[in-house]
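Q: I'm teaching a short session on how sequence maps to structure, and I want students to see two examples side by side rather than one. Could you give me a first protein with its sequence written out and its structure tokens following it? Keep the formatting plain so it prints cleanly on a handout.
A: Of course. Example one:
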Amino acid sequence: MWLRLGGDVIIEDLWNHSTENVAELRSLLARGVEAASERQRKDFYEIDGGFRVFYIHLCPNGKVLLLAIWAHDHVQAAASAAAQFRSSAPI
């Protein structure tokens, strides 16, 4: 799925990632990026930023929740971590 958010995207970073990573996510969303949606959870996406994967939730009010970032090289390990997060963190 192609995901593009116009205007000033509000990103709430739940884990205090670096300002550079948040800026990179904002840039990806502004210009448009391929996003893989979660089958089990509505409005949850993995975004491949090249060197990093961003795991986000799009809120109904338009806010983006940045839930996790992992290095692209460690996608398999991070997928299990994301699955654990999803099963333990109600939103």
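Q: Perfect. Now a second example for contrast.
A: Example two:
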Amino acid sequence: MTYDPTNVFARVLRGEIPAKVLHEDEHCLAFHDVAPQAPTHFLVIPKREIASLSDATSEDAALLGHLLVTAAKVARDLGLEEGGFRVVINNGAGAGQTVFHLHVHVLAGREFAWPPG
């Protein structure tokens, strides 16, 4: 998939669109979702231009792990561990990906059905 540098998350990273930032480091940014699907819903996005999980390569392995570790850290910081939280990566339009900049959803604060979708 071709990465579009005008996507909304790229614009957030450049500071063109404001975000309620929860965490930032040299590799990623975590911020509240503007259209939450649960009482708590935040995103963790890489600063590297990766359109979707399918576009990640073995060179991105450490970054992908960092995104998940950051998701857990922010969830812990928000006190979500006891009640639990869900981590989701949609890959491709057919799976519900609407912004083609890799992103990890973290949702909490309500019951979730299984299987999802």
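Q: What should students look for in example two?
A: Point them to this: The CA atoms of residues 6 and 12 lie 10 Å apart. Also worth mentioning: The mean pLDDT is 97.
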